[in-house]
């Protein structure tokens, strides 16, 4: 069991973030949950995690807003020293072609999917960096295989935001290595969560799963396990890596 380790997971009221929270709790981490609007789900998860016997708090914060992010990390400080940040919060919009993507929509997707990553990483550096009195730490970014495929005819804006996340992961990893902070990313493929409904196709995974080498969609637990590994001491020599969790795609 991890003693006195704290993990903060953005967007952890449901889906991959919620499963990741459960995974860290099982390993003994104190868990900071974050949600934008799903208070009830976040509080239910908080109770489930506390029942495991670890500390847990659920903090409402819009991770695109610098003041909210600052308050989120301040709340996390109450649980102890931050060891792990998982930049998981993400959105996609209705399936559309490039010609129909508005500038407003594009900026919303960029703000949630990549600006949030910058804001949260900056807060984590203040707490983890060995140059600032910290004990080091690990950051795991939840990117997407869309960074590789480009998501044509669906959401190129989303894919572009995840491409930015991959570059951010590489750059931050190289910059922060000497400060004791490892930075890696997972790139999930088709995972059974609510996010596909936001694109207008709740059953999208089942439509596309037969195109995957493994012939099935992935479960949030399978992504959570990869995130946990990248944050754990078991991956102590791994940084700047993009780990595909995508059924062979
Ligand atoms: P999901 O079920 O739709 O959950 C998204 C989470 O993000 C929710 O907890 C949501 O909070 C939170 N969130 C959204 N905007 C936020 C904001 N501004 N501030 C704080 N929290 C916010 O999605 P998911 O499928 O688990 O996705 C998690 C991550 O995996 C995303 O980055 C996504 O791009 C990535 N991913 C998913 C798949 C897949 O197939 N599912 C594939 C590749 C990558 P509320 O509940 O409060 O709205």
Give a description of the structure.
The protein is built from nine helices and seven strands, in the order E-H-E-H-E-H-E-H-E-H-H-E-H-H-H-E. The protein has helices at 15-26, 39-52, 66-77, 103-128, 146-149, 156-176, 195-198, 204-208, 220-231, and strands spanning 6-9, 30-35, 56-60, 82-87, 137-142, 181-188, 242-245. Strands 3-2-1-4-5-6-7 form a seven-stranded parallel beta sheet, with helices on both faces. Strand 2 (30-35), helix 2 and strand 3 (56-60) form a beta-alpha-beta unit. It binds NADP nicotinamide-adenine-dinucleotide phosphate (NAP). Residues 10-17, 34-38, 62-64, 88-91, 112, 142, 144, 188, 190-191, 193-195 line the site of NADP nicotinamide-adenine-dinucleotide phosphate.
Secondary-structure blueprint:
Layout: E1 6-9, H1 15-26, E2 30-35, H2 39-52, E3 56-60, H3 66-77, E4 82-87, H4 103-128, E5 137-142, H5 146-149, H6 156-176, E6 181-188, H7 195-198, H8 204-208, H9 220-231, E7 242-245
Parallel strand pairs: 1-2, 1-4, 2-3, 4-5, 5-6, 6-7
This protein binds NADP nicotinamide-adenine-dinucleotide phosphate.
Q: Termini, distance in Å?
A: 34 Å
CATH-assigned fold name: Rossmann fold
Contiguous uncertain segments of 5+ residues: none
Radius of gyration: 17 Å
Helix content: 40-55%
Strand content: 15-25%
Bound molecules: NADP nicotinamide-adenine-dinucleotide phosphate
Largest sheet geometry? 7 strands, parallel
What is the β-strand count? Answer: 7
Q: Give, in spatial order, the strands making up the sheet with the most strands.
A: 3-2-1-4-5-6-7
What CATH architecture do you see?
3-Layer(aba) Sandwich
Alpha-beta classification: alpha/beta
Number of helices: 9
Shape: globular
Within CATH, the superfamily carries the name: NAD(P)-binding Rossmann-like Domain
Keywords: Oxidoreductase
GO molecular function, one term: oxidoreductase activity
Protein name: Oxidoreductase
InterPro entries: KR_dom (IPR057326), NAD(P)-bd_dom_sf (IPR036291), Sc_DH/Rdtase_CS (IPR020904), SDR_fam (IPR002347)
